[in-house]
Protein backbone atom coordinates (compact mmCIF):
# COMPACT_ATOMS: atom_id res chain seq x y z
CA UNK A 1 0.00 0.00 0.00
CA UNK A 2 1.35 3.42 -0.93
CA UNK A 3 1.84 6.12 1.71
CA UNK A 4 -1.01 8.17 0.22
CA UNK A 5 -3.51 5.47 1.16
CA UNK A 6 -2.33 4.93 4.69
CA UNK A 7 -4.26 6.55 7.47
CA UNK A 8 -4.15 6.81 11.27
CA UNK A 9 -5.85 4.92 14.08
CA UNK A 10 -6.10 5.47 17.81
CA UNK A 11 -3.76 2.89 19.35
CA UNK A 12 -4.36 3.94 22.95
CA UNK A 13 -6.30 6.58 24.84
CA UNK A 14 -6.22 7.78 28.44
CA UNK A 15 -7.90 10.42 30.56
CA UNK A 16 -7.37 12.45 33.70
CA UNK A 17 -9.73 14.54 35.77
CA UNK A 18 -8.90 16.28 39.04
CA UNK A 19 -10.29 14.60 42.18
CA UNK A 20 -12.48 17.49 43.38
CA UNK A 21 -16.14 17.00 42.41
CA UNK A 22 -18.64 19.88 42.43
CA UNK A 23 -22.31 18.88 42.33
CA UNK A 24 -25.43 20.81 41.33
CA UNK A 25 -26.39 20.88 45.01
CA UNK A 26 -23.10 22.65 45.76
CA UNK A 27 -24.13 25.45 43.36
CA UNK A 28 -27.68 25.57 44.73
CA UNK A 29 -26.27 26.28 48.18
CA UNK A 30 -24.47 29.43 47.01
CA UNK A 31 -26.55 30.87 44.14
CA UNK A 32 -30.04 31.13 42.69
CA UNK A 33 -30.14 27.79 40.86
CA UNK A 34 -31.24 24.21 41.47
CA UNK A 35 -30.30 20.63 40.68
CA UNK A 36 -33.62 20.36 38.82
CA UNK A 37 -32.89 23.35 36.51
CA UNK A 38 -29.33 22.33 35.73
CA UNK A 39 -30.23 18.68 35.13
CA UNK A 40 -33.22 19.45 32.92
CA UNK A 41 -31.59 22.24 30.94
CA UNK A 42 -28.12 20.74 30.51
CA UNK A 43 -27.94 17.11 31.67
CA UNK A 44 -25.04 17.97 33.98
CA UNK A 45 -25.03 16.58 37.53
CA UNK A 46 -21.43 17.18 38.54
CA UNK A 47 -18.03 18.25 37.22
CA UNK A 48 -14.38 18.03 38.28
CA UNK A 49 -12.37 21.08 39.36
CA UNK A 50 -8.63 21.58 39.49
CA UNK A 51 -7.06 23.20 42.53
CA UNK A 52 -4.91 26.34 42.39
CA UNK A 53 -1.71 24.32 41.89
CA UNK A 54 -2.93 22.27 38.93
CA UNK A 55 -2.85 23.39 35.30
CA UNK A 56 -3.79 21.91 31.94
CA UNK A 57 -0.36 20.34 31.38
CA UNK A 58 -0.64 18.39 34.66
CA UNK A 59 -3.85 16.72 33.52
CA UNK A 60 -2.45 16.27 30.00
CA UNK A 61 0.66 14.52 31.30
CA UNK A 62 -1.38 12.17 33.51
CA UNK A 63 -3.68 11.25 30.61
CA UNK A 64 -0.68 10.80 28.30
CA UNK A 65 1.07 8.31 30.60
CA UNK A 66 -2.08 6.13 30.55
CA UNK A 67 -2.46 6.43 26.77
CA UNK A 68 1.20 5.50 26.19
CA UNK A 69 0.84 2.39 28.35
CA UNK A 70 -2.38 1.32 26.62
CA UNK A 71 -0.81 1.82 23.19
CA UNK A 72 2.44 0.10 24.25
CA UNK A 73 4.32 3.15 23.00
CA UNK A 74 7.68 4.51 24.15
CA UNK A 75 7.79 8.33 24.48
CA UNK A 76 10.88 8.29 22.27
CA UNK A 77 8.73 6.99 19.40
CA UNK A 78 6.49 10.07 19.40
CA UNK A 79 7.09 12.29 16.36
CA UNK A 80 4.50 15.03 16.97
CA UNK A 81 2.63 16.35 20.02
CA UNK A 82 -0.55 18.39 19.47
CA UNK A 83 -2.39 19.89 22.43
CA UNK A 84 -5.87 21.19 21.65
CA UNK A 85 -6.73 23.69 24.37
CA UNK A 86 -8.29 27.06 25.03
CA UNK A 87 -6.72 27.10 28.49
CA UNK A 88 -2.98 26.49 28.07
CA UNK A 89 -0.78 26.78 31.17
CA UNK A 90 0.28 30.19 29.78
CA UNK A 91 0.22 31.92 26.36
CA UNK A 92 3.75 30.64 25.67
CA UNK A 93 5.60 28.34 25.76
CA UNK A 94 3.04 25.93 24.42
CA UNK A 95 1.54 23.31 26.68
CA UNK A 96 2.77 20.76 24.13
CA UNK A 97 6.38 21.72 24.95
CA UNK A 98 5.70 21.25 28.67
CA UNK A 99 4.24 17.80 28.01
CA UNK A 100 7.13 16.91 25.69
CA UNK A 101 9.68 17.64 28.42
CA UNK A 102 7.72 15.92 31.20
CA UNK A 103 7.31 12.63 29.34
CA UNK A 104 10.79 12.67 27.77
CA UNK A 105 9.56 12.69 24.17
CA UNK A 106 12.89 14.06 23.01
CA UNK A 107 12.36 13.10 19.36
CA UNK A 108 9.09 14.99 19.05
CA UNK A 109 8.12 18.49 18.02
CA UNK A 110 4.90 19.92 19.38
CA UNK A 111 2.50 22.83 19.39
CA UNK A 112 -0.88 23.94 20.72
CA UNK A 113 -4.00 24.19 18.62
CA UNK A 114 -6.86 26.62 19.24
CA UNK A 115 -10.24 25.46 18.02
CA UNK A 116 -12.13 25.55 21.35
CA UNK A 117 -14.52 22.64 21.85
CA UNK A 118 -13.84 21.32 18.33
CA UNK A 119 -10.08 21.20 18.99
CA UNK A 120 -9.77 17.44 19.35
CA UNK A 121 -11.33 16.79 15.94
CA UNK A 122 -9.17 19.49 14.31
CA UNK A 123 -6.13 17.86 15.95
CA UNK A 124 -7.21 14.41 14.83
CA UNK A 125 -7.22 15.59 11.22
CA UNK A 126 -3.80 17.22 11.63
CA UNK A 127 -2.43 14.00 13.14
CA UNK A 128 -3.86 11.96 10.29
CA UNK A 129 -2.42 14.41 7.76
CA UNK A 130 1.10 14.10 9.22
CA UNK A 131 0.81 10.30 9.22
CA UNK A 132 -0.77 10.07 5.77
CA UNK A 133 1.99 12.23 4.31
CA UNK A 134 4.63 9.98 5.84
CA UNK A 135 5.90 12.89 7.96
CA UNK A 136 5.11 11.04 11.20
CA UNK A 137 4.44 7.49 12.36
CA UNK A 138 3.27 8.30 15.89
CA UNK A 139 1.36 11.38 17.06
CA UNK A 140 0.31 12.24 20.60
CA UNK A 141 -2.95 14.21 20.47
CA UNK A 142 -4.28 15.77 23.66
CA UNK A 143 -7.50 17.66 24.37
CA UNK A 144 -7.03 19.32 27.74
CA UNK A 145 -8.72 22.15 29.59
CA UNK A 146 -8.94 23.92 32.91
CA UNK A 147 -12.05 25.91 32.05
CA UNK A 148 -12.77 26.63 35.71
CA UNK A 149 -9.73 28.94 35.67
CA UNK A 150 -11.61 31.23 33.25
CA UNK A 151 -15.13 30.81 34.62
CA UNK A 152 -17.14 33.64 36.15
CA UNK A 153 -18.53 32.07 39.32
CA UNK A 154 -20.96 34.95 39.78
CA UNK A 155 -22.69 34.20 36.43
CA UNK A 156 -25.21 31.37 36.84
CA UNK A 157 -25.71 31.25 33.06
CA UNK A 158 -22.21 29.86 32.51
CA UNK A 159 -20.61 28.73 35.77
CA UNK A 160 -22.68 25.57 36.14
CA UNK A 161 -21.66 24.33 32.68
CA UNK A 162 -17.91 23.85 32.73
CA UNK A 163 -15.42 21.36 34.15
CA UNK A 164 -11.73 20.43 33.92
CA UNK A 165 -10.07 17.37 32.37
CA UNK A 166 -7.76 16.00 29.70
CA UNK A 167 -7.79 13.10 27.28
CA UNK A 168 -4.76 11.88 25.35
CA UNK A 169 -4.67 9.66 22.27
CA UNK A 170 -1.74 7.93 20.60
CA UNK A 171 -2.23 7.84 16.85
CA UNK A 172 -0.29 5.45 14.69
CA UNK A 173 -0.26 4.60 11.01
CA UNK A 174 -2.46 1.85 9.62
CA UNK A 175 -3.94 0.66 6.38
CA UNK A 176 -7.61 1.12 5.48
CA UNK A 177 -10.27 -0.03 6.16
CA UNK A 178 -9.10 0.62 9.75
CA UNK A 179 -8.56 4.15 11.05
CA UNK A 180 -9.76 7.65 10.23
CA UNK A 181 -11.93 7.44 7.12
CA UNK A 182 -13.13 10.98 6.47
CA UNK A 183 -13.85 14.32 8.09
CA UNK A 184 -15.59 17.69 7.85
CA UNK A 185 -14.00 20.79 9.41
CA UNK A 186 -15.61 24.24 9.39
CA UNK A 187 -15.38 27.67 10.97
CA UNK A 188 -17.36 30.92 10.83
CA UNK A 189 -15.69 33.95 12.39
CA UNK A 190 -18.72 36.14 11.74
CA UNK A 191 -20.24 34.50 14.83
CA UNK A 192 -17.20 34.97 17.05
CA UNK A 193 -19.02 37.30 19.45
CA UNK A 194 -21.29 34.57 20.78
CA UNK A 195 -18.71 32.84 22.94
CA UNK A 196 -15.38 34.32 23.86
CA UNK A 197 -12.87 35.28 26.52
CA UNK A 198 -12.91 39.03 25.79
CA UNK A 199 -9.54 40.10 27.25
CA UNK A 200 -6.03 38.81 27.79
CA UNK A 201 -4.82 38.82 24.19
CA UNK A 202 -3.25 41.51 22.01
CA UNK A 203 -6.59 43.30 21.40
CA UNK A 204 -7.13 43.92 25.09
CA UNK A 205 -4.03 42.96 27.07
CA UNK A 206 -4.38 42.20 30.78
CA UNK A 207 -4.71 45.41 32.74
CA UNK A 208 -6.30 46.66 35.94
CA UNK A 209 -9.25 47.81 33.82
CA UNK A 210 -9.82 44.41 32.14
CA UNK A 211 -9.56 42.61 35.47
CA UNK A 212 -11.96 45.04 37.15
CA UNK A 213 -14.39 44.62 34.23
CA UNK A 214 -14.30 40.82 34.65
CA UNK A 215 -13.24 40.33 31.03
CA UNK A 216 -10.85 37.41 31.52
CA UNK A 217 -13.65 34.88 31.82
CA UNK A 218 -15.94 33.03 29.42
CA UNK A 219 -18.75 35.22 28.08
CA UNK A 220 -21.45 33.34 26.19
CA UNK A 221 -24.81 34.04 24.60
CA UNK A 222 -26.10 30.59 25.48
CA UNK A 223 -29.30 30.58 23.47
CA UNK A 224 -27.58 31.58 20.22
CA UNK A 225 -24.78 29.07 20.80
CA UNK A 226 -27.38 26.40 21.48
CA UNK A 227 -29.21 27.00 18.20
CA UNK A 228 -26.05 27.04 16.07
CA UNK A 229 -24.50 24.06 17.87
CA UNK A 230 -27.59 21.88 17.34
CA UNK A 231 -27.80 22.65 13.62
CA UNK A 232 -24.12 22.73 12.71
CA UNK A 233 -23.22 19.56 14.59
CA UNK A 234 -26.00 17.57 12.95
CA UNK A 235 -25.16 19.03 9.52
CA UNK A 236 -21.50 18.01 10.00
CA UNK A 237 -22.36 14.41 10.93
CA UNK A 238 -24.78 14.06 8.05
CA UNK A 239 -22.22 15.56 5.62
CA UNK A 240 -19.36 13.28 6.64
CA UNK A 241 -21.65 10.26 6.34
CA UNK A 242 -22.91 11.40 2.93
CA UNK A 243 -19.34 11.88 1.71
CA UNK A 244 -18.90 8.14 2.31
CA UNK A 245 -22.35 7.12 1.00
CA UNK A 246 -23.41 6.19 4.56
CA UNK A 247 -26.30 7.04 6.87
CA UNK A 248 -26.88 7.13 10.63
CA UNK A 249 -27.85 3.45 10.41
CA UNK A 250 -24.26 2.55 9.53
CA UNK A 251 -22.79 4.19 12.64
CA UNK A 252 -22.22 1.99 15.69
CA UNK A 253 -21.37 4.77 18.15
CA UNK A 254 -21.59 8.56 18.07
CA UNK A 255 -19.29 10.61 20.30
CA UNK A 256 -20.68 14.16 20.38
CA UNK A 257 -19.08 17.09 22.19
CA UNK A 258 -20.67 17.04 25.66
CA UNK A 259 -22.03 20.59 26.04
CA UNK A 260 -25.72 20.03 26.67
CA UNK A 261 -27.81 16.82 26.67
CA UNK A 262 -30.56 18.57 24.71
CA UNK A 263 -28.08 19.50 21.96
CA UNK A 264 -26.82 15.90 21.94
CA UNK A 265 -30.39 14.53 21.63
CA UNK A 266 -31.19 16.96 18.84
CA UNK A 267 -28.02 16.03 16.91
CA UNK A 268 -28.73 12.31 17.29
CA UNK A 269 -32.29 12.75 16.06
CA UNK A 270 -31.33 14.88 13.06
CA UNK A 271 -28.53 12.46 12.16
CA UNK A 272 -30.92 9.52 12.36
CA UNK A 273 -29.35 7.76 15.33
CA UNK A 274 -31.17 6.47 18.42
CA UNK A 275 -29.74 7.61 21.78
CA UNK A 276 -28.60 4.00 22.45
CA UNK A 277 -25.88 4.66 19.87
CA UNK A 278 -24.73 7.88 21.53
CA UNK A 279 -22.02 7.92 24.20
CA UNK A 280 -22.97 10.34 26.97
CA UNK A 281 -20.95 11.26 30.06
CA UNK A 282 -21.92 14.94 30.40
CA UNK A 283 -23.61 14.19 33.75
CA UNK A 284 -20.19 13.42 35.28
CA UNK A 285 -17.93 16.05 33.73
CA UNK A 286 -19.97 18.94 32.32
CA UNK A 287 -18.58 20.77 29.31
CA UNK A 288 -14.80 20.21 29.21
CA UNK A 289 -14.37 21.82 25.76
CA UNK A 290 -11.47 20.20 23.84
CA UNK A 291 -11.24 17.43 26.46
CA UNK A 292 -14.84 16.35 26.04
CA UNK A 293 -14.50 13.89 23.14
CA UNK A 294 -11.25 12.23 24.34
CA UNK A 295 -12.75 11.88 27.84
CA UNK A 296 -15.71 10.09 26.28
CA UNK A 297 -13.48 7.89 24.07
CA UNK A 298 -11.26 7.01 27.03
CA UNK A 299 -14.25 6.04 29.16
CA UNK A 300 -15.65 3.96 26.32
CA UNK A 301 -12.22 2.26 26.02
CA UNK A 302 -12.20 1.54 29.77
CA UNK A 303 -15.76 0.17 29.67
CA UNK A 304 -14.83 -2.13 26.77
CA UNK A 305 -17.50 -0.53 24.60
CA UNK A 306 -15.19 0.11 21.64
CA UNK A 307 -14.87 -3.01 19.51
CA UNK A 308 -12.64 -3.59 16.51
CA UNK A 309 -14.46 -2.91 13.24
CA UNK A 310 -17.04 -0.53 14.72
CA UNK A 311 -17.87 2.63 12.78
CA UNK A 312 -17.40 5.59 15.14
CA UNK A 313 -18.55 9.15 14.45
CA UNK A 314 -17.18 12.16 16.33
CA UNK A 315 -18.77 15.61 16.21
CA UNK A 316 -18.03 18.86 18.04
CA UNK A 317 -18.80 22.57 18.04
CA UNK A 318 -17.22 25.49 19.85
CA UNK A 319 -16.13 29.09 20.00
CA UNK A 320 -15.11 30.67 16.71
CA UNK A 321 -17.47 29.20 15.72
CA UNK A 322 -15.53 26.07 14.88
CA UNK A 323 -17.11 22.70 14.22
CA UNK A 324 -16.42 19.40 12.61
CA UNK A 325 -17.02 15.70 12.39
CA UNK A 326 -14.87 12.63 11.77
CA UNK A 327 -15.51 9.00 10.93
CA UNK A 328 -13.25 6.27 12.31
CA UNK A 329 -13.28 2.54 11.64
CA UNK A 330 -12.13 1.26 15.05
N1 LIG B 1 -30.10 28.21 37.17
C1 LIG B 1 -31.36 28.68 37.09
N2 LIG B 1 -31.79 29.47 36.09
C2 LIG B 1 -30.89 29.81 35.15
C3 LIG B 1 -29.56 29.36 35.17
C4 LIG B 1 -29.18 28.53 36.24
N3 LIG B 1 -27.92 28.04 36.34
N4 LIG B 1 -28.93 29.84 34.08
C5 LIG B 1 -29.80 30.58 33.41
N5 LIG B 1 -31.00 30.56 34.04
C6 LIG B 1 -32.24 31.24 33.67
C7 LIG B 1 -31.97 32.47 32.84
O1 LIG B 1 -31.64 33.56 33.67
C8 LIG B 1 -33.30 32.64 32.16
O2 LIG B 1 -34.20 33.26 33.08
P1 LIG B 1 -35.21 34.40 32.59
O3 LIG B 1 -36.10 33.73 31.59
O4 LIG B 1 -35.88 34.80 33.84
O5 LIG B 1 -34.34 35.46 31.98
C9 LIG B 1 -33.79 31.20 31.93
O6 LIG B 1 -33.01 30.39 32.82
C10 LIG B 1 -33.58 30.72 30.52
O7 LIG B 1 -32.27 31.07 30.13
P2 LIG B 1 -31.73 30.77 28.67
O8 LIG B 1 -30.31 31.18 28.57
O9 LIG B 1 -32.66 31.36 27.65
O10 LIG B 1 -31.89 29.19 28.64
P3 LIG B 1 -31.46 28.14 27.54
O11 LIG B 1 -32.60 27.26 27.22
O12 LIG B 1 -30.77 28.79 26.37
O13 LIG B 1 -30.39 27.25 28.31
C11 LIG B 1 -28.00 26.97 28.38
C12 LIG B 1 -29.19 27.85 28.77
C13 LIG B 1 -28.11 25.68 29.15
C14 LIG B 1 -26.70 27.67 28.71
C15 LIG B 1 -28.05 26.69 26.87
O14 LIG B 1 -28.27 27.92 26.19
C16 LIG B 1 -26.84 26.05 26.32
O15 LIG B 1 -26.49 24.92 26.68
N6 LIG B 1 -26.17 26.70 25.35
C17 LIG B 1 -25.09 26.10 24.61
C18 LIG B 1 -23.82 26.08 25.33
C19 LIG B 1 -22.81 25.35 24.43
O16 LIG B 1 -23.14 24.46 23.70
N7 LIG B 1 -21.59 25.73 24.42
C20 LIG B 1 -20.70 25.02 23.46
C21 LIG B 1 -19.59 25.76 23.20
S1 LIG B 1 -18.74 25.99 24.71
C22 LIG B 1 -17.15 26.41 24.29
O17 LIG B 1 -16.80 26.64 23.17
C23 LIG B 1 -16.17 26.52 25.45
Describe the structure in your own words.
By secondary structure, the chain is of the alpha/beta class. The protein has 2 domains: 174 residues, Thiolase/Chalcone synthase (Peroxisomal Thiolase, Chain A, domain 1), CATH 3.40.47; 149 residues, 3-Layer(aba) Sandwich (Peroxisomal Thiolase, Chain A, domain 1), CATH 3.40.47.10. Strands 1-7-6-4-5 form a 5-stranded mixed sheet, sandwiched between helices. Strand 12 and strand 13 form a beta hairpin. Helix 3 packs across helix 4 and helix 8 packs parallel to helix 9. It is globular and about 55 Å long. The mean pLDDT is 97. Bound molecules: acetyl coenzyme *A. The site of acetyl coenzyme *A has 23 residues, from helix 2, helix 6 and helix 8.
Number of helices: 11
Could you estimate the helical fraction of the residues in percent?
Answer: 25-40%
Mean pLDDT: 97
Report strand %.
15-25%
Helix and strand succession? EEHHEHEHEHEHEEEHEHEHHHEE
Strand count, sense and barrel status of the largest sheet are: 5 strands, mixed
Q: For this structure, what is the CATH homologous superfamily of the largest domain?
A: Thiolase/Chalcone synthase
Distance between the termini: 19 Å
Over all CA atoms, what is the radius of gyration?
19 Å
What small ligands are held by the chains? acetyl coenzyme *A
The multimeric state of the shown protein is single chain
**Strands of the largest sheet, in order across it?**
1-7-6-4-5
Q: How many beta strands in the DSSP annotation?
A: 13
- Total number of domains: 2
What ranges have pLDDT less than 50 throughout 5 or more consecutive residues?
A: none
Instruction: Characterize the overall form.
Output: globular
The top-level CATH class of the largest domain is Alpha Beta
Instruction: Briefly note the CATH topology name of the largest domain.
Output: Peroxisomal Thiolase, Chain A, domain 1
Amino acid sequence: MSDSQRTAYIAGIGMAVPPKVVTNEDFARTMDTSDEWITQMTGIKERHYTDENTATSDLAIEATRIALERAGTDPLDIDVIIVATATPDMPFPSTACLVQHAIGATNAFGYDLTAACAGFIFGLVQAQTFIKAGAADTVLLIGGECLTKITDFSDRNTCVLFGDGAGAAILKSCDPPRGIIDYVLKCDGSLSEYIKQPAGGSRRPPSRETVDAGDHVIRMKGRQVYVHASKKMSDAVVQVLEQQGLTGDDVDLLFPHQANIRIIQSVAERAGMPMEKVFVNIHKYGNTSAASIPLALAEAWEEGVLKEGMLIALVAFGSGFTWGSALIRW
